[in-house]
From TrEMBL:
Protein name: Unannotated protein
Family matches, as InterPro entries: Memb_transporter_dom
Pfam family, one: FUSC_2
Taxonomic source organism: freshwater metagenome
GO cellular component: membrane
Membrane-crossing segments per the record: 39-59, 71-100, 106-127, 139-156
Keyword line: Membrane, Transmembrane, Transmembrane helix
Main location: membrane
Length: 399
């Protein structure tokens, strides 16, 4: 019985972040309900719903969600009133409202979340018992729920955006190092096509984590720019490390693909297996050590000795390949040479010495995660150009 009770307790203690998020969400919904009911009769329900939908794992994301709710309230409520005045309340009004809201969200280039909030908010506003007074109360309740959710989201996660960025970079780096170590052991022992396919599948899964790490690094940098207790230099450094780990993961996937192609064509020559395994092992160790330094102090740079060992292992592999060039299959030799290039790029990413990390603009977060895919200024310029095409030439000078 005692063992079962301890196991039950560990279900929650081992998931501290999740428990904290649901407790904060529950507190935000309860507070929104209470405040909404104090201000309006039956106003707590709408406020609680909006608060539950708006609270996210960070203040930055909740602010963005709250902004989406406000846009949804303004656009959705206006569209709902127009539909009711023309068609009255009924299924036609509901259908027309959803269609018009979706069109409006598309025209304003709202992101995925805000686009969903527009028709949802409109349906809440035109719900049963709709009157002008009720609609106004529901609109205000929506704003109250969003505001309370933004306030409570400060406590929705046990770590800061910078701390979450460090965790994600470290997790992705350690998984990459583990995969390289596995590939090193497989190459040394003589791997099969099935094993290489398994490595490639794992590498593809690692690449799929890149957008999440990038979004978190962008959040940390954005948060540091406007929150007084955050350090901007630290956030910028973490952003650079996020770009570096992205380049590292891509090279790990390329290595896995190269090994798979080699297995399909008969495998790597035994004369070079040991050197390739040593090079992959050196890369794995360098990444692991780099992650350890990041967890100990995010401001510490990579140890140059580790990346030097990687480059030396790659140079030794090149010398061996050249010595055996007359006996080696040309295609397999080219693939083995490409591994050296991949390892050099990983080394450049770890010590952040490559211009590709600093001289090339990195895409922002995916459009689907933004509230506004285009800035209001950019949208205004586009609309003005379209309007000028319709307006007579004599009047265009005034626009």
């Amino acid at each position: 019985m005692k063992h079962q009770f301890q196991r039950f307790i560990r279900l929650f203690t081992d998931r501290r972040a999740w428990v904290q998020q649901i407790l904060v969400t529950a507190a935000a919904a309860a507070t929104a309900w209470q405040v909404g009911d104090l201000l309006f009769t039956n106003g707590g329900l709408v406020a609680a719903i909006v608060a539950s939908l708006t609270v996210r794992i960070s203040l930055h994301k909740s602010t963005r969600e709250g902004f989406g709710q406000i846009l949804g309230t303004a656009i959705g409520a206006g569209t709902a009133f127009v539909s009711i005045s023309v068609f009255g309340f009924g299924f036609i009004t509901v259908a027309v409202t959803v269609i018009l809201c979706s069109v409006a969200a598309r025209a304003l280039h709202l992101g995925e979340v805000a686009s969903i909030n527009v028709p949802v908010t409109a349906l809440i506003v035109i719900g049963p018992g709709i009157t002008e007074n009720n609609a106004q109360n529901r609109m205000v309740s929506t704003l109250i729920g969003a505001a309370i959710a933004i306030l409570f989201s400060y406590w929705a996660h046990p770590k800061t955006p910078a701390g979450r960025t460090i965790d994600q970079i470290a997790s992705l780096g350690l998984r990459s190092a583990k995969l390289l170590a596995t590939m090193s052991e497989g190459v040394a022992a003589g791997f099969t096509q099935d094993e290489a396919g398994n490595w490639l599948a794992k590498a593809r899964l690692l690449v799929e984590e890149i957008p999440r790490v990038r979004a978190q690094a962008i959040e940390a940098r954005t948060f540091a720019r406007w929150f007084p207790t955050a350090e901007l230099d630290e956030a910028e450094e973490l952003y650079s490390r996020g770009v570096a780990v992205e380049h590292t993961v891509v090279q790990v996937r390329t290595i896995a693909r190269t090994l798979f192609d080699s297995a399909v064509d008969g495998g790597i020559a035994q004369s070079t297996q040991r050197k390739i395994a040593e090079a992959l092992s050196a890369a794995s160790f360098a990444i692991s050590a780099n992650v350890g330094e990041l967890l100990a102090d995010e401001n510490v740079q990579a140890d140059p000795a580790l990346t030097d060992d990687m480059r030396q292992a790659g140079a030794a592999l090149v010398d061996l390949l050249i010595d055996h060039s007359s006996k080696s299959d040309p295609e397999q030799m080219v693939r083995s040479m490409s591994l050296v290039t991949n390892l050099d790029r990983i080394a450049d990413s770890l010590d952040q010495s490559s211009p590709a990390l600093h001289s090339v603009a990195v895409p922002n977060e995916p459009d689907g995660q933004k509230v506004l895919r285009l800035s209001p200024l950019e949208q205004g310029r586009k609309w003005r150009k379209r309007m000028k095409k319709v307006i007579p030439k004599k009047l265009r000078k005034y626009f």
